[in-house]
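Researcher: Hi, I'm a grad student and pretty new to this. My advisor asked me to get structures for two proteins we've been looking at. I'm not sure of the right format, so I'll just paste the first sequence and hope you can take it from there.
Model: That works fine. Here's the first sequence with its structure tokens right after it:
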Amino acid sequence: MTIWNAILLGLVQGIAEFLPISSSGHLSILQNLFGLSTAENGHLFFDVLLHLGTLASVCVVYWADIRQMVRDCLDMLYAIGHPEAAKGGRMPGARLALMIVTGTLPLVLILPVHSRVEELYNHTIFIGLALMLTGCMLYVSDKMIPGKKTGRTMRVRDALLIGLCQAVATIPGLSRSGTTITAGVATGLDRSFAVKFSFLLSIPAVLGANLLSLVDAIGEGVEWSYMPAYLIGTVVAAVTGIAAIRLLKFITAKGGFGKFCYYCWGAGFIAVVLTIIL
């Protein structure tokens, strides 16, 4: 694992994790077709750090929302034991936190087949087809008429449906952000809020997955001589992740992100062709 290798993987992770183009698909292509070192080559700890870097990106961009959720939840818990201190009115942060918890629950369905899903990472033709499917999904999402629901008006069933789509998007090559944002728009969410909910929904998903991966990484052993490269790659992933989130928010405010479909179609097609001829 060289420093340049780590920087490249950090760039790919930071950009592709949030833009609707599938980070898992791109990392798989880099590994399977170009021999770039990834977690599958004994760098599982680096994979954990990369995901924690992009998790930090979400926390930085949506810190105000996270702070409100924590504050409202603490106020609600305090009010249970101290009714006289209960605040009047609704607690939007607590309600949004409930929707995120609800949307995270469907990931439990993936646990029994998690190892089977990970095996798909090594099948580049499948990855290419999944990328093309992501492109089709993005194309359709851009044609949808967005609703007006926000965190104050979305329902539990909306969160569950988005969560189910997030669980499906654990399949390599499917974009998690693209799938959940599309599902959010389909349930009637305002497009900008669908983007916010998608990224906030990633926090417990990424944190939970990486806690499990961290146990495996420690068991596998950490090559400490690679740590400088690991840390540089993690910082690159965090910084580019922040830029990618803000770019997607900007694109969404201008009308949609369906144009990413052409990139996914092209990348998927090239991956399939190169797999066949190489």
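Researcher: Oh nice, that was easy. Here's the second one.
Model: And its structure:
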Amino acid sequence: MKKATAAVLAFLLGMLCLSGCGNQKSDGSADSAVEESSGSALEIDNTDGKDEQIVLENGKTVTVTDDGSFITEKDNGYEWSYLAGTCRMTFPKEWKDRFVVRESSVYCKEIFDKAENTGKLFSLSFLDDAGMLADPQPAALLGVVNHRYVTAVIPSEADFDSDDELLSAEYNDLAGSLSEIFQSTFCSGSDSFKPINLSAYEPATESAESKLLGTWQIPNVLEPGQFTPSVTFRSHDSAFGYLSAENVVTLGAFLLNKNAENYVWNTDNWGDAGLVFTGGKIFRATYYESVPETLEFTVLFSENGASDALTESKFVFQSESQSITRSADDATEIELT
């Protein structure tokens, strides 16, 4: 039995190192947990039949969930390592013995213990460009992994008896920490990316009254024959497109800032117009109303480098066309799929 336990322990610690060792770094990385715990494991607790819990000599724990996540106890809380460390976030130390992780979802343990798969606090979702526009809207954008946008989705309604005051109080207390947890998350190929609260953004609609919806293009000041990029927003499906090369249209999705219409636009005070998602890149669009009306893009994250036709120019508003076409010679409208 001791040999079997030792073999399981070696396997779990080896897997733990795989989840955090290498080039990825964070303040509470899994590799540091291995260094701290080397030769210090006292026992393995598998009482629930699903999770393996390693109890260290210092009293801290490393939990390996049934589906391969790692939850490492740190001085400041509990670090959840998902997808071999591709996504990492820290739960407050006050969450001790109060949460359950199953696959990409986190639950309130008190509710989960009464009925499995209930009491969901949030789930991680990996979306493509078009998926960023699907309901329900995610609560936070946590990063980009292999051209997929990692979002945290909070349930739109309770999946337990919300009339139970004790359960509701426990759930709401945990939910009150979610914003802090999301900001602790590392879910991208760059540790410089900061999670974005998406509550201020929504897909554009036909009825949305925004000066942002239209065709934007650079002023005609280039030399004859030189490529002139243009960019388009389409309100009925929030499609976004721009010419990344001569007659080559790159598609993406656009979320409009719900507060944009309340901004006072001027040349000194740029406003947040919205976010653009295209090909694993995240851009922030900013806008001011002057003469002429100008739109500028800033790359927030890019797996393929920060510079392209979209970020090399300021675009000037010229018309209200809502279509995205391939070129002047091919007027076929392009669908966002």
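Researcher: Is there anything I should tell my advisor about the second?
Model: You could mention this: The mean pLDDT is 76.
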